[in-house]
Design brief:
- By secondary structure, the protein is an alpha/beta fold.
- The chain has 18 helices and five strands.
- A five-stranded mixed beta sheet has the order 2-3-1-4-5, with helices on both faces.
Length: 388
């Protein structure tokens, strides 16, 4: 079912109702799809305006994914539209969508689409229809364009029978087992931990089990935090900025591994680390301090390489996340001196008050930097909005 581009004059076939309420209000029933299921699954460009066009869009989405709640939200928006028309309101219905990854880019896209609708239909208030709290997080974006007079949340009814409850539960279990988006962490991380535990028992190296568990969990967190898995899976679709990010991540990981090796070699040879348990190693201040002192500089360079590459890629792409990237680098730099002082406290017994003062100074500088960059981004965002 092909979808026609947004043309308000062609799609708008509603007769303006007469009555006291119609003279006072011109409402816009707005269905919000923040993660753009209607575009990614239904192949439909937004905004979609008009009763018939919204029904066509909802039907296409329901055909592509019958279990998607956004299709029900679209039909609910059409129902609210018809109810308001029957009560004598001047009303129009429309669908706006964000982007798959949500976030600021999705909210900016929704703001532009609402602006495009209001250029054609001069509404005095909006009735928001959504299928959950995630879509409703864009309410401030809508309210910056026109007042929101009502919010309607659509909750999908499920069968009350135990049989259907088990069927729904089975679908979630199947998704965890076979959907790569979930299985690689829900099954992969526990599986790696069990495998590490089995190997440690088999080779009688249980004293290193705690270190192995921490390393696996840390690696999983790093992969998820920096979307390394997505970067690797999308190598064929990578642009110039993506190659910069990939190079910086790989380079940063290599530097971090070198930092760990340097830290291990910095442990005094007179300490029998091989004969100590993992708990004894972690509680020995000489071992921890020597390891930290030997690894801190290279470790910080490696982390800065990763963060710097991400910042450079986002900056060249013109992404709005560059403020957060800069703040990460600032905080990383401010934490370097406290980490060095922490290592000195463990190895040389220096006073901990120097560490406390450095942390307080770093916190103050972080707050000032965050306020400065936030105000700068806010002014630039307002200037770009005026241009558009």
């Amino acid at each position: 079912m092909p979808h026609q581009p947004f043309d308000y004059e062609r799609n708008h076939k509603m007769e303006v109702p007469k009555g006291p309420e119609a003279a006072q209000s011109r409402l816009l029933v707005l269905c919000i799809d923040r993660d753009d299921d209607i575009g990614s699954k239904g192949g439909i460009e937004t905004p979609v305006v008009g009763r018939d066009q919204c029904i066509n869009a909802g039907t296409r989405l329901a055909i592509e994914d019958p279990e998607d709640a956004d299709a029900n939200a679209i039909f609910a928006a059409v129902k609210h539209y018809e109810e308001l028309v029957s009560k004598g309101y001047a009303v129009e219905v429309a669908i706006v969508a964000g982007k798959f990854n949500r976030g600021i880019e999705a909210d900016e896209k929704i703001s532009r689409e609402v602006k495009a609708i209001l250029e054609k239909y001069d509404a005095t208030g909006a009735v928001i229809v959504s299928d959950g709290e995630d879509d409703e997080t864009v309410l401030p974006v809508i309210q910056s364009r026109l007042p929101v007079v009502s919010v309607q949340r659509i909750i999908i009814r499920h069968s009350r029978s135990v049989e259907y409850s088990y069927a729904i539960f089975g679908r979630y279990v199947k998704a965890m087992m076979y959907d790569p988006q979930y299985s690689k962490f829900i099954l992969g991380v526990p599986g790696a931990l069990l495998l590490a535990g089995g190997l440690a028992v088999a080779f009688e190296q249980t004293k290193w089990l705690t270190v192995m568990i921490l390393a696996i969990l840390g690696g999983a967190f790093v992969v998820r935090a920096f979307d390394i898995d997505k970067a690797v899976s999308s190598v064929s679709k990578m642009g110039p900025t993506d190659f910069i990010k990939l190079f910086s991540v790989i380079g940063g990981i290599l530097i971090i591994l070198a930092a760990i090796a340097t830290g291990i070699s910095s442990i005094p040879p007179n300490i029998p680390v091989q004969e100590m348990s993992a708990l004894e190693i972690l509680s020995n201040k000489d071992v921890v301090g020597s390891f930290a002192k030997g690894t801190i500089t290279l470790m910080w360079i490696g982390i800065a390489t990763v963060l710097g590459g991400v910042f450079l890629g986002n900056w060249l792409k013109g992404s709005s996340r560059e403020v957060s990237d800069i703040l990460r680098l600032v905080v990383l730099g401010l934490l370097y001196i406290p980490m060095v002082q922490f290592a000195s406290i463990l190895t040389e017994g220096t006073s901990p008050f120097t560490l406390i003062s450095s942390l307080l100074i770093g916190l103050a500088v972080s707050l000032v930097a965050a306020a400065f960059f936030y105000q700068r981004y806010k002014h630039r965002h307002a200037r770009d909005s005026v241009k558009h």
